[in-house]
Amino acid sequence: MATTTPFDRMFLTGICIETALYGLNCGVFGAAMYVLIRKYRKDGNRSGMFLFGLSTAYAVVAIRQLFEAFIFSPPGTASAYFKMQTNPLAVTKLVLYTVNVVTQNLFLIWRLWAIWNHNWWTIVLPLLMEIVHTGMIHGLYPSPLITQYLSAYAVSAFIAIGVGAKPTSHEREKGFFILIVKRCSIVDWSMDLVINIGVTAAIALRLWYMARFLGEHMPDRHNQVMGIMRMILESGLLFASATIVTVSIYLSGSLDTVNAIDGIVQLATITPLLIIVRVGLGLTAGQPSKQNRTTEIDLPMEFASGPRHDESGISDDTEMTDSTHTRHTRTKHDTSSDLPKVEQSSIE
């Protein structure tokens, strides 16, 4: 006896999980805006607000789907409604998901560029990989002759989940479409994973190098840089782990991949905002305590190889001239001001 896939329960579960994550997202977003407006900048964080707007729109569209499936549609047709992934709301969800993930990747690449002293060579490969990653979504339009399948191609990820993971004999007879959808979906997620792990590792490498350089002379700064490095690694691991779980579920042929995708949309927003909150509120391991933090939080966050300056723009270095005397020299360069840019790249 043929069994019917419970698309209604599957999507209902996924949307409930997504809504719970969106509630957490709202709390993290509020804390991030508090940190930015009260401590760093009055205009907040445009990229963070953009990501939060995308996740909000995704949650609204998902709730609208529930209304159409369970309230506006005839009784007993909810599963059929969710199975038809070419309707406008399903297409809108995939577009929002795509833009959200791409924006999160670009934000991560920007952070790499900032921490590596604005060296463009550090982001050439990640940008090329992101172009390939995005092309897996938009490269499925081979010719104008296939315009009638435009909506189907636009929601390739969701169609691949529903029928691409375990295509039936009837679906195999449809041609090459299901196969190309499945392959592009795997490549899309794999490239996303490589970008996240690679860029996060490059950022951590730079921070580790800075911490090693500061270790002998400024142990407090060394611990602070190491704390920020661990925080960025943890945040990157959060999103990478979610992607690995999604790909694993998909390759296993389970339809629960839908639930994972709904959650990834919210995690893609929570990850960068969580970094802002932890840096701004001093929740990173290795940061100095409140009594030891005097003007460090209020320093202008710039990333240049120079000294920590006083109000006149000059710093003091103490030089021993003999066993009983010291001489204060004025210098304009020191290696102790590299840390502010680390915080700045994390905040922005």
From TrEMBL:
It comes from the Eukaryota. The keyword RNA-binding does not apply. The chain crosses the membrane at residues 20-37, 49-67, 94-113, 120-140, 186-208, 228-251, 263-283. Coiled coil: none annotated. Keywords: Membrane, Transmembrane, Transmembrane helix. Residues 302-348 are annotated as: Disordered. This is Uncharacterized protein.
